[in-house]
Amino acid sequence: MAFPKANARGATLGLVIGLGSMMFISVMAFVKKKTLPHLPTSIDQCPQSNGTVIKSMEPVEEIESWAEKIFQLSYLLYSLVAAIITVTTGLLFSVGSNSKGVCTDVKYLHPAIRKFVRIDIARNSTNDDKI
């Protein structure tokens, strides 16, 4: 609807890869059970005055790689990540599959997308609804 170059093979492979990658991320997040450390909220050691006291800096823990941080992704973002992976891989496989001769009906494209699609008049001299 929004991508004229997409075909069935690319859409199917994008679906499989997107679904598989999100299943992997969600299962690994469950298995690793990584949680964020809680910040101290106790006020037992606070001075009685309402002033600011600067303490010495404590060493920072080792920074994890992005591959480990992806398992701490909020479940609310799973659908966004899955959509990005599915559309991106589907389009890459569709463009890479080199399916020549496949015509897309203009009526299947979104009206906003029709403006950007170049219609080749010589190729469509017999049927004006195809691009």
Q: Which SSEs are present, and which pair or pack?
A:
Layout: H1 8-32, H2 66-69, H3 78-96, H4 111-114
Helix pairs in contact: 1-3
- The helix fraction, in percent, is 25-40%
Helix and strand succession?
HHHH
Distance between the termini: 13 Å
Largest sheet, if any? none
Secondary-structure class:
mainly alpha
InterPro entries: Sodium:Solute_Symporter_SSF
Organism: Folsomia candida
Keywords: Cell membrane, Ion transport, Membrane, Sodium, Sodium transport, Transmembrane, Transmembrane helix, Transport
Transmembrane segments: 12-31, 75-95
Task: Characterize the structure shown.
It is found in: Cell membrane. The chain crosses the membrane at residues 12-31, 75-95. This is Sodium-coupled monocarboxylate transporter 2. With 131 residues, this protein is mostly helical. It folds into 2 domains: 1-34 and 69-100, no CATH class; 103-131, no CATH class. Helices cover 40% and strands 0% of the residues. The protein contains 4 helices and no strands. The chain has helices spanning 8-32, 66-69, 78-96, 111-114. Helix 1 (8-32) runs antiparallel to helix 3 (78-96). The longest helix is centred in the first third of the chain and has 25 residues, at 8-32. The two termini are 13 Å apart. Residues 120-125 have low confidence and may be disordered.
What can be said about this structure in brief?
GO terms for molecular function: symporter activity. With 131 residues, this protein is mainly alpha-helical. It has four helices and no strands.
Q: Which descriptors would you attach to this protein?
A:
131 residues, mainly alpha, 2 domains, 4 helices, 40% helix, symporter activity
